[in-house]
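Task 17 of the worksheet. Students: predict the tertiary structure of the chain below and write it out as structure tokens. Keep your answer in the requested format; marks are given for formatting as well as content.
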Amino acid sequence: MIEEIRPGLKRWAGPHPEFNPVGDDLDESYGNVASVLFSSEDALVLIDPLVPNGLWPELDAEVKESGKPVVVLTTIFFHERSRDAVARRYDARLGGDAPGVRAFSAERADEVALWLEDARALVFGDAILGDQAGGLRLTPWAKDAEGLERTRKALLKLLDLPAEIALPAHGNPVLVNAHEALARALTA
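Model answer:
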């Protein structure tokens, strides 16, 4: 089921067939992975879409209702999920710039955090996770301490944004005071 976070911003989450969080410094509460739908001024942007079969009719209705071209973005290259199926189904553009969306490097391969300006929301792939207690946490998936510090420093620039919402791919979203939650995660 697609959940409205605020007008023009929606999210859904479900199990990923290839992701098992247990053993990655996470527990089974991280079993679901999230996808985001953002209606910008000129496009319907789907971020890291993972679409189970039962969700296609609801997503079809969202696309039809928007009447806008569809753009599919990924936060990191291996978040392919249903990206190609979505692109084929909706004749969507893969990647590139999308109106109202700014990408910020997470200094983890090609991973980016996405700023949805009108929604005042940040969308994260693997660099920032929900901490399952109402906040955020830095990734447990770093090759080494230097890489983790590089990611932390790269994400500090996000504190210049007036973020109200944080939508991580893994873990619970932060729907109020996201700026404060991110500051705590990056200075812990």
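Marker's comment: The two ends are 34 Å apart (CA to CA). DSSP finds four helices and twelve strands in the chain.
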